[in-house]
Amino acid sequence: MKKGFALLLCAALLIAALAGCGTVSASSPQSTPAAASGTTAATAVAQTGTETAVEAVYTMDDQFSQRDMTQTADLSEAETIVLESGRDVTITEAGVYVLRGTAENTTVIVEAGDEDKVQLVLDGVSITNADFPCIYVKNADKTFLTTTDSENTLTVTGSFRADGDTNTDAVVFSRDDLTLNGTGTLTLSSRENGVSCKDDLKITGGTLSITCAADALEAKDSIRVAGGSITILTDKDGLHAEDGDDDTTGYVYIAGGSLSIRAGDDAIHATTVLQIDGGELTLEAAEALEGTRVQINGGTLNISASDDGINGSHKSKSMAVAVEITGGSITIKMGAGDTDAIDSNGDLTITGGTLDITAQSPFDYDGTLTHTGGTLTHTGGTITVNGQETDTVTNQFGGMMGGPGGGFGGKGGFPGGQEGEPPQVGFPGGQEGEPPQGGFPGNQEGEPPQGGFPGGQGGQPPEGGRPGGPGGMPPQGNQKTV
User: Fold this and answer.
1) Residues 22, 81: one domain?
2) For the chain, how are helix, strand and coil distributed in percent, rounded to 5?
3) CB count, 10 Å around CB of 55?
4) Residue 386 burial by Cβ neighbours in a 10 Å radius (0-12, 13-18, 19+)
5) What letter would DSSP give residue 419?
6) Which domain holds residue 453?
7) What is the mean pLDDT of each run of 10 residues along the chain (482 residues)?
8) What does the alpha-carbon distance between residue 290 and residue 266 come to, in Å, rounded to a whole number?
9) Do residues 147 and 93 both lie within one domain?
10) What are all long-range contacts of 25-32, with beta carbons under 8 Å and residues at least 24 apart?
């Protein structure tokens, strides 16, 4: 009996201690006041001679070949093809083919050998089809779609029909590797996808404009961007890399170029890694960047989002969830409501770069926090939140502690208030933000738990005398420290 009472007493002392401190400073073992209800703050300190090293996953050299980066085709042995309405063109051998002319219900089909590289040079092409791709790569080692200094337009006006067992669903549809480059303009319009590639899709040059109802650029293995000017307007995702049968692949790598994306869902979505090393990105979407591991090492990003600005989430079981920022200039403006500028369902690492965030919840992370860069180590990085430069990273940790819903016992994941709102008087537990009777948090309906201790469901003290989780289990991730 004495042992049980002692455990319950420890529980009461523990919850009282937690209620009194929302942060743990990295520079001192002493507790400091919380930045705001529902957040914890992890304050970075300069670590002389110590900095968390974040290794880049990909590099330019291993992602693009010399031919990928060559924007002008070698036409010395090229064959010229003039398109005609109602007549498909089938290419069966490696080589360079110059396409010209205006046509309707015409498809350029590549059906070459497994080792063949085919280059289609668009030199003033306009194709409008009702229900089938304008460019269809059935088989090749690799196909290059290269624009000359010209205007080129590819349009599919209706719903796509299948080709046997293949559900074609894009203006440019490729079963094998595909590279888009050149010096001209390519405009795509589709009732479904813009470009669909069942292998690796690369963009290194040219001006690409896509208007579509589904994914603008999609690939199974990877999407890689090194240059060019890309403008996308879509009801779904701008860039989407995913293989539905294999969650170990499907990455996005951006090293350069200009991307302007307005998307109804994700601007850029990767199953595994989403890495940005350079380029100028203007993204407006529900979620701007989403992947299992999101790494930003450079570039200029301007993000407007209505859900999460940058989201590291469990898309692949092959790697840990993380958001890593080592460089770049990042501006994030979030809509009102339950939104996070940077949301990691795992770890958050910031070692440099410039972050300018306008949001009610600037950071939300579920793992550990490493913040060794920015102004505190004087590496040139800065963090500005709602107009004020800061060296403190707060954590909006809804759903981390307590009873059902994740708060200390209130609904919705924040201490006390309904639907995730902070309590009016700063005490956890009761409905409508009122302090619970008896001075202890934890029970629903604002009633004190039996025995006066917090934590268990139905007002019962938790097993083992520890507050917080359902069934008396301790909460996970209730404090974040450097």
Assistant:
1) no
2) 10, 40, 45
3) 7
4) exposed
5) G
6) 2-38+398-472
7) 43 42 33 34 36 83 97 98 98 98 98 98 98 98 98 98 96 98 98 98 98 98 98 98 97 98 98 98 98 97 97 96 94 92 92 94 83 43 89 64 32 38 38 40 41 41 40 37 32
8) 7
9) yes
10) 25/481, 26/481, 26/482
Instruction: Give 383's strand partners.
Output: 355
Distance separating alpha carbons of residues 238 and 201, to the nearest angstrom:
14
DSSP 463: G
82 and 138 in a single domain? The answer is yes
How far is residue 482's CA from residue 477's CA, in Å, rounded to a whole number?
13
Amino acid at 328: G
Relative to beta strand 23-24, strand 31-32 is antiparallel
Determine the Cα–Cα distance for residues 67 and 180; give it in Å rounded to an integer: 11
The one-letter code for the residue type at 15 is I
Same domain, 10 and 95: no
322 domain-assigned: no
Dist CA 147 CA 71 (whole Å): 8
Predicted TM-score (pTM) of this structure? 0.75
Distances in Å between the Cα of 45 and the Cα atoms of 41, 48, 283, 371 are 13, 9, 32, 8
State which amino acid sits at residue 364.
D
DSSP assigned state of 166: B
Distance between CA 117 and CA 99 in Å, rounded?
16
